[in-house]
Amino acid sequence: QGAFTLQAKPDDMLAVSYLGYKSQRVKVGTRTKLEVVLTEDQNLMDEVVVVGYGTQRRRNIVGAVENISGEVLENRPNAYLLRSIQGQIPGLNITMADGKPSRSASINIRANTQSIGAGGSALCLIDGVEGDLTAMNPEDVESISVLKDASSTAIYGSRGSNGVILIQTKRGSQGEFHVTYKTKLAIAEPMQRIETMGPNEFIRLKQDMGRLKNNYSGEQLDPLVGSIISASEKVNYAKGITNDWQDYVFRTVFTMDHQLSFQGGNEKTTYMASVSYLDNPGVVYNSNYQRTNVYASINQKMNDWLSVGLTTQFVNRETGGATPNLEHAIKQSPYGIYKDETGAYYEEPMDYSNLPNPMKDVNADQKRTGRNFMANGFLDLKLPVKGLSFRSQFGYNYRSQMNGTYYGRNTVTGKKVDGRAELANNHTTDWTWENVLKFDRNFGKHHIDFTGLFSMQEAQYTAASQSGEGFVNDDSSFYRMDGAENKIAISSSFWKENFVSGMFRVNYGFNSKYLLTLTGRADSFSAFAENHKWAFFPSAAVAWHLG
Q1: Residue 280, pLDDT score
Q2: Are 319 and 286 spatial neighbours (Cβ–Cβ below 8 Å)?
Q3: What is the reported pTM?
């Protein structure tokens, strides 16, 4: 009912604000009753927001839709798109799988939902095509829209059940041809280290444990004579050698990010292209990451009723190197043996098999290459009926991943088995064809916005992997799998799925005050049960503007 009570002094200023309205500052003075009426922020309410298969003014949206503009991303300079949008949208939860620069992420909207046979991550669409946000260059993004409620996500049917994130990439603009170059150089180091005991604290702990657990006393508590530490630890204790194992796991590195873009156009043609290169060695030993992005977009207005366009993206990611085990590092004794006399990593620094050397396999030859190619073409038609238009769009996405690892004789794992090789490849292709009919027109105080959709989609995945042990030498790494003599394993997999969908959405407004949205989508999915190949997803929402 708008009732409130505040403890305030006469000279205090009250700041009153609400999303979508202009903020007001009101002086308390001698009043005991205060009435504040906020006015709509017209600039914000007239903002055009991508809502899926079109755009709408923010004031006319009845669902829960949040938007981040490209200017916001530019003010948060970061080489990783997901890190740039973290904390920017209420209810959007981004959880990184680990601390590596090449990390994957789980993206959930409002809640972490799971199903028996599918994940709970949100649907991520880049220019209408399902894509990987972890590989995106933030400089190529024009805007991000997050659809959070049933009314907003119903247009995507079963795929939108966990929410939808829409990425709109940049386009060229009219004007003279110009070139832009940006670079970011930085020094990265661990934000903090895990606090562990020093050498003296560790010995005191072992002595206290000996007294309480085994009733040790006298010489039994002496680190060299007694048995409170292992034989390996005694070697370093006698020599006065200690190790801070996190010194081997963490490091300070130099990172760089280069961006080069080209843009221009005229009344008929607009174009944009960009190339970027990111090199982040990672603050954890061997967590190297290099990413190259190539982006190009061209839009052509053929005449007054026909426009066409094409957008392409290519991403190449290179990672490699077996990273150390941080858990094993923080649990090691300060007196554990790091390397033996030959310079090889000592397998069990404390003589405990469950706590091997965290660096035992960092010399492995590892290469991970991921490539992603996307192409998205469209044509827009303005039909003879006023307010009626048609858009046909075809998107293709190809992703491949190659993971190869060879544990040579200079690693603990490889030394035991005369070398171990692992090689895995997978390929994913999918295409989406969407046809959208729109009717947008005013009739006096009435406004009607109709969207009809027919779409088809297909995705296909193939994978193969092999491993083996026992190689004559380490020269061929994982490139000669036929050289393995023992424990040879081969596997492969394949899946394919198809979608056929139809959708309608009707937005009705009266006097720019009362709003109604009706949405329905029917999906046919190859993975649906036999005799239940179709599912219908309806939604309805109403809203009105006060004042």
Answers
A1: 92
A2: no
A3: 0.81
